[in-house]
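Quick start: what a row looks like.
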Amino acid sequence: MKEQYEQIAIQYHSEVLEKETEEILWGIVIDADKNLFQVDNIPFYGPELSCEDIIYATYNEQEKRYKLEHIETPSGNSTIQVMVLKEKYNREDLYNEILYAQTEIELVDDYYFVINVPVKTDYKNVYAILAALEEEQVISFAEPNLSPKHSADIRK
């Protein structure tokens, strides 16, 4: 059976953008009757939300789209936000180093991207890469949605 996708609007105050904002995510329909969707992309600026979370969203007739109401079941994945600080830095090497640690990346532009850290990935390895790059002042990163599993990984 072919997966059905819907656009889901989320509204929140963004610490990154320092304003109220709206972001549109893609959700795979899990149960249309119960309004349940699985988030299918990495939130760029959003609230405590990660790829593969199961969410409850209601349809807004006026706007002709769904609106996030709450997270039904967290995926255990983590979302990391990264700002690239160095003007002249090989972006491909940077991305490949992070991807090699078993993550996924979505680019916003040359200076900002987000990382999805799947629940099965040992975050200690990802954190070591990010911390080293931050110490070299190549990047700055934030952990707006660090899962309990990944939080425990860096304390091992």
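That is the whole record. Helices lie at 91-100, 123-135, 148-153. The CA atoms of residues 82 and 141 lie 4 Å apart.
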